[in-house]
Specification:
The chain contains 14 helices and ten strands. With about 350 residues, it is α/β, with parallel strands linked by helices. The structure holds S-adenosylmethionine, 6-(5-methyl-2-OXO-imidazolidin-4-yl)-hexanoic acid and iron/sulfur cluster (SF4).
């Protein structure tokens, strides 16, 4: 941790309170102290951290595809795909390989560099992985980075995915440990940590983040960021999702989070995980361009790109291309939204 950051903390929080705190690089009070900085100070520091490791005008474009939608047995309180909530999402079978590859080709033609495939599973069965391996190989062969999110992984499954050429596995811790049980009861926080360990051990890069705006406190948002930042090593890719409130889910109808608090969360993630790709993930459809621009200033350098997330909407590709153009930002390849023949 840089001394530059430390000097701004209240003296008490700079003194580790316990051996456990001493071992952690980002005690939660120090992360909370970042959240409490004057806004301009926070953004300035986030910009400094960002510019040390990245081109501040460059953004990664990652396209998401739901390869197996709905009918999930879990009870995640935010999720429209949980079978137990009446959200209007219909359960579908896993998509055929050719359909997935056609979507990946289209994403690439639009300028995406990463293709993320998501399945509404608690965990994949070994036989499901045969199909996933083919998808990963096919997408990788197109020259795209590959990412999948399939739920919990058992021993050996991560190695199979690595063997197929998987670059990233997305598995979010979602929120601070002490808030977790308010949101999900059908699997434990520790289950998630175990899966992340298997991913890391298999040599796959970790994509792990969470959701804000679920009724957690600021201290709990700091707790989420501290958990991520204290992973050793911290995730290469950190999706910061703003809760998309979906009618029928238990979290629908909550008071919306102040947009500036969302921007602060991005900034704190950037400062504590300076080399990570911090993704301004779900929730952009509900965000003004000005708030998105502030997120980029705060150090976000990745977005989901494509008019759909998994089941909910995302800004249209044309609108995103126009926004990036307005901000003078460019994608990793330099090309955004090359019109393709598939349209
Ligand atoms: N079923 C797998 C799992 O839960 O690990 C993979 C797919 S799941 C939809 C991936 C992540 O999407 C969740 O962990 C959560 O962070 C995010 N997510 C789901 N619904 C969301 C919503 N309504 N708003 C914001 N993020 C959401
Ligand atoms: C992540 O952190 N966010 C994505 C992805 N990883 C899989 C999912 C967002 C889902 C938003 C709700 C939906 O569209 O169903
Ligand atoms: Fe299922 Fe994943 Fe949705 Fe939870 S977040 S209900 S595990 S699809």
């Amino acid at each position: 941790m840089s001394t530059q950051v430390l000097e701004f903390y209240p003296a008490a929080s700079a003194v580790p309170a316990s051996p456990a705190a001493a071992a952690s690089r980002w005690p939660v009070e120090q992360v909370a102290a970042l959240f409490a900085l004057p806004f301009n100070e926070l953004i300035y520091r986030a910009q400094q951290a960002h510019r040390e490791h990245f081109d501040p005008n460059e953004v990664e474009l990652a396209t998401l595809l739901s390869i197996k939608t709905g009918g999930c047995a879990e009870d995640c309180g935010y999720c429209p795909q949980a079978a137990r909530y009446d959200t209007g999402v219909e359960a579908q079978k896993i998509l055929p390989l050719e359909t997935v590859l056609a979507h990946a080709r289209e994403a690439k033609a639009h300028g995406a560099t990463r293709f993320c495939m998501g399945a509404a599973w608690r965990e994949p069965k070994d036989r499901d992985l045969d199909q996933i391996e083919d998808m990963v190989r096919g997408v990788k062969d197109m020259g795209l980075e590959t990412c999948v999110t399939l739920g919990m992984l058992a021993e050996g499954q991560a190695a199979r995915l690595k063997g197929a050429g998987l670059d990233y596995y997305n598995h979010n811790i979602d929120t601070a440990p002490e808030f977790y049980n308010n949101v999900i009861t059908t699997r434990d926080y520790q289950d998630r940590i175990d899966t992340l360990g298997r991913v890391r051990d298999a040599g796959i890069k970790v994509c792990c983040g969470g959701i804000v705006g679920m009724g957690e406190s600021r201290l709990q948002r700091a707790g989420l960021v501290a958990q991520l930042a204290n992973m050793d090593p911290y995730p290469e890719s950190v999706p910061v999702n703003h809760l998309v409130q979906v009618e029928g889910t238990p979290l629908h109808g909550l008071d919306p989070l102040d947009p500036l608090e969302f921007v602060r969360t991005i900034a704190v993630a950037r400062i504590t995980m300076p080399k990570a790709r911090v993704r301004l993930s779900a929730g952009r459809r509900q965000m003004s361009e000005a708030v998105q621009a502030l997120c980029f200033m705060a150090g976000a350098n990745s977005i989901f790109y494509g008019d759909k997330l998994l089941t909910t909407g995302n800004p249209e590709v044309d609108a995103d291309a126009a926004l990036l153009d307005k901000l003078g930002m460019h994608s990793r390849t330099g090309h955004v939204d090359a019109r393709c023949e598939l349209e």
